[in-house]
Amino acid sequence: MTKVALITGVTGQDGAYLAEFLLGKGYEVHGVKRRASLFNTERIDHLYQDPHVDHRRFILHYGDLTDSTNLIRIVQQVRPDEIYNLAAQSHVQVSFETPEYTADADGLGTLRLLEAIRILGLTDKTRFYQASTSELFGKVLETPQRETTPFYPRSPYAVAKLYAYWITVNYREAYGMYACNGILFNHESKFRGETFVTRKITRGLARIKAGMQDRLHLGNLDARRDWGHARDYIEMQWLMLQQPTPDDYVIATGIQHTVREFVETAAEFLDIRLEWRGEGVGEKGYEVGTGRCLVEIDPRYFRPAEVETLLGDPSKAREKLGWTPSISYRQLVEEMVREDMKAAERDALCRREGYAIPDRSEE
Ligand code: NDP
Ligand code: GDR
Fold it and tell me: Which keywords label this protein (predicted)?
């Protein structure tokens, strides 16, 4: 029997990788996408199947986590074996600007999906994956962070995800549902949104190298993160739903770098050597040899409450799921730089040929 999966957030970074992975495993994959005024399926266009042909295995539905009528209808229609709830307003800084919406989509949205499973009598059939996050640890109370480390969320995003975490545990305990939390640490790729710090750095430095941009503005260079590759992490999401019993797992590499180090590694792959001068908000990164200022600290990118350091302990996932990440930090940065350099060179060529390339260097 072909297994059927439903992915919310299928147009996002993880959704795109997971859809491709599950299709490769023979699944019929359904995805929920939001209505937008422009096409928003760039990350999954390579998987697209014409809705007019029979026997499609990749099917998209319009939907939104803030609308339970629509979620119930989709779950009823698809009757999935597995639901991966990846949809979220996932930007921590933006959650300070849209806290109520973030709580609605990221917190209550999870409840709406769990209730849809229950209302439709699918509690014994449908397995549920919740995209939980290392942001739950926020102001860390133990290092490295593991499944038993107490939570201390530091943003409206993290507080909303805390609700989603516990409602998932609650439905597992109350109704015997197969429901899991993957507590994933930061994971990146060429599909990463342009306003997350890693992509902002690889894209910004590549555009500087291609002459498309002068300078990169960043916030807290001292923040420390445990960065892995999204392709490794989505395999874990699937593995969690294939076990005899449901459980919650930390997924991380166990290695930490600062934002400053990420800038330096990306610069190294572009053959740029940086020298830092100053400290904190005044700090700037100059290119050795030319003396050009390439990186500048801008207070607008500092958060009202910062998560200074995150480092995960993935021992449980390694022991119980047999998982170890296969892509190293340096391979990750190299791949992101390479892809962004290709895009920057293409834009530079178009601009030289007289095409108007918008100057959307950063947000
Ligand atoms: P992205 O921001 O790339 O993707 C988020 C997805 O959710 C997009 O498809 C987006 O649609 C969709 N979405 C947003 N709001 C709604 C809504 N109200 N209704 C329906 N869909 C919505 O995130 P990632 O792929 O990086 O992350 C996937 C999940 O994992 C998220 O829940 C995130 O919070 C969580 N997470 C991510 C980590 C990471 O490092 N990447 C680490 C830990 C957890 P659209 O394309 O239209 O914007
Ligand atoms: P994060 O990722 O908040 O960890 O959430 P992000 O890349 O946005 O920030 C990481 C760290 O870098 C610092 N920083 C900057 N961040 C951004 N975005 N832009 C900047 O210019 C900048 N300068 C410094 C931040 O202050 C922060 O400390 C991501 C998201 O994917 C969440 O959805 C997910 O849950 C967590 O990772 C795990």
Answer: Lyase, NADP
